[in-house]
Fold:
Amino acid sequence: MQNIPACKGQSMPGHTISCMTEKMDEIKDERCRQYLLRLEAIVFSDYRLVENMMNDCKEEIANHSCGRVQVSQEGTPHSQGDTIECLSTKVLDLRPACRKQILRLAELQADDFHLDRALFFACREDREKFCEKTRAGEGRCVEQMTRRQKLMVRDYQVSRGLVRACRSAISENQCRRGLGDQNHDVKLSHILLCLEDAEKKGKDIERACQEEMLTHRKMLMEDYQLSPDLLVDCSKDIGLFCHDGIETGGRTLHCLMKHAHSHNQQETISDLCKRRLQETIKQSDAGEDWRADPVLYEACYSMVESNCRAYRGGNARVLRCLMQHLDSPEMPTACEAALLEIQYFVARDWRMDPVLYAACSENAERLCGARRSWFNVNTSSPELGGKRRFESEGGKKSKVEQVLPCLFRYVYHPSPKLRLNSTCAEEVQRVMQERAAHVDLHPEIERVCMGELGKYCSSHTGPGEEIACLQDNMEMLERECKDAVGNYTEAEAKNTGLNAQLTMQCASVIPQVCGTVPQPDTDGALMECLIRHKNTELVRNTHKCRAVIEHFQLLALKDYTFSPKFKESCQVDVAKFCGRPKPKNKADVIECLSTQVRDAVLSDDRHKISKACRHQLRQQLMQRHESIKLDPKLQRHCSNEVAKYCKDVTRGRGAVLECLRQNKQNLLSECHSVVFLREEEEQQDPGTDVVLVSTCKQMIQQYCYDIPAEQYLSCLKKKKSELNFDPMCRQVVVRRMVEQTTDVRLNPDLYQACRRDMAKFCSELVEQMELSSTELNGKLTECLKEQLPTKKLSATCKVQVLTMARSSALDYNMDPILLTNCKDDMNVLCHDYLNNDGRGKMEECLKLHFDTGGLQSEECKIHIAHVIDTQRADIHVDPILNEACGVDDNKYCEGKEKGQHLACLLDVLERNPNGLKDDCSKKLRDRKEMFSAAYKISHLKSIEDFVNHVSASPERNYILLVFVTAIGIIFVGGLFCGRAQTLQVAQG
Structure:
């Protein structure tokens, strides 16, 4: 006693013993300690023997009827211990002075459960059995343990185990700073949060203290009644949804968690209750160790044993493992539910993920204005009850909830100075990928889209379905929700790991077709790779994977920012050239940019669109041409034609567009115009021609591997006659060549070479072309061919026109006017050659019948006459003659200029007919007769020729109208002039 000055001056009865008991740790004499321990059992059984208890709690004893001897226990000793028990159960209702005495007493009793008489008598049977899951004594022990736990929550010192194990940690980390050593109202949550903060900062916490912390965290998760604020603010919700809280072992808390993220407003707990729940989960730090949550532990034990056994508890290791197996078939339903219920709250406070917090605390503070300290509790004065205001209470838009979305925005920031460090970026992406499938785990989306989820997505509850549903209905979402979903979709496009459906359905495909794409993917390269390979056999056979890829392609049409590389490469061009009218979606952006590119090609101007953007535009056009679903304009204008002519065509690989091209003559004007635009795009850049590129893939690799994509068709046209050329590819190349003959706009090489010649010789047709949104059916090409004999064409244009003339001579399908004007004659006179072999036999047949007068159609006669007249330009334009006279041409005319070989051979025929081979000699004589007959039609010499020519011309109505109008003007003018002259004579 001499060594404890505080106990010397005590004069009240029993106060000296109470004082010395309180200072037990300072007493060194073992005999004194043992004596005091024996006295404690007597002192703590009667409140009248406890220092200041009688004085400080007299009013409460009377008000709460805690001083009355129980009638049922009048004969039992130590009955005054009931007073202490009674007051401890009403600790929240006591005045500060009395509450201090009760908490102080509970601290002293914590040394030995014998000192708490009510606890001792109620729990002695259970203590003997020591069976955690068995209740004995009709629940008396549990009732008394709950009472003790409630006292611990109010004053951490009631837990002697925590005080002893963590004394040094509490002191070193100043967890009682500003509270004073004599304060008996330091809440357990304050100490736990302080120690957890120290642990997350890397401070060394003793193993025994860590174990005690885990025990107390588990205690908070087991019994919601140990959280007074939650008990008060959630009482109504517990009564409504959770069977009045009768479920134990943490089930009531999980019931509240379940109803915290319900999208049905009628089944959702109040915001205040949700905040209290968030506080409780943070205090227990349930996101750090799965063992702290008894419901999660019980539900997931088997899953952890089979899949996560290698991971120690703590630092969220096991929880991360469970999240990685969330979509595994082995995952028990109960485990998944409990895990998502915990993750719902972890997702709303980035600090509750210890690995994320450790990696990103500096970045969060620098870039997102987050507090550096994990422990953000403001403790007010004890006199005000020690109330705290958590950050989660800070209004509708909690700052804590915004930190992770903020960090995520900086993962892909264009400025390296503002980008997250690699460790933090990796953790942020890991967290976002783990949570990708569940909108509940994205508070920034759930908060603003709750109404839309209920309205549009109530039936979509599977992994990833809710977010996909919101994306599908993006046009109908409210502004805030639309922005949130748009931001997430843009991020999803960059990092396909955020696309839960894609990750799930394409897991087996990605390593095989896109294994070389660096991971993690941050620029959309993986999605681009999957799109490129979606028509491979492997992906086509994985139907669900292909469906997810195509779904994202459709989604990307809603906004060009959902295509990262396209946005990065083209955003400057879009801002410069596509501002008016402002594009509504990606399809509008593609239409605008492709129009700019097309106009530059047609006008032979320098490209305004940057090279990088044109490269990305090619990828987008290829996707658009591949599937009509990705071409809203074509789908809108051609839906009836597709249903009528292409209903049996397998969708994808450009098949529908190809079908429409082959049925152009049957299309309505609106559809025809759109199809013509698509043909223009593909002819100007064959790299966007899906059918050509896919069918001719091997031929391109073999013959055109070093050729730019814009020149693929030109290259393949030159090589199509090679012996080992793929027949299927040849068919496609020929079809494209046939298309080119229908309109010069579909033949960029011809258009650029002959642009000035067309303006000079075919100006009326050029004007007609500029007003037309479809083909001119070869009229401009024919006009250019007619200039060949006159030798007025420019050199570059002449080369292109000669090439086209030769091609049309070999394949009659490449002469659209012949197909129109000579259809009947071909069917009747040249039926055997309708099965085109590409060797010019059909045209030769028609020319022979022209020579003999066998053609019935005047239109056909005129056109064949023009063909024959055109072929006077050069022997190479006449493939049949060239084949027959090739040897003689080399023999007699080798040194002649181009265009002089036919004249040379005709001269040889006149001078030395026997010097030519018989076949060549015969063909030359036939040609002379044809030239003569054709000349009579092509160069009119009489009124009769003119009349016959006009009557046979397809433009006869127009010519007659012009002729009659001219005659009428002359006649009327003559009348006026005659009358004027007569009047003048009369006046004279």
Remarks:
- The first helix runs from residue 15 to 22.
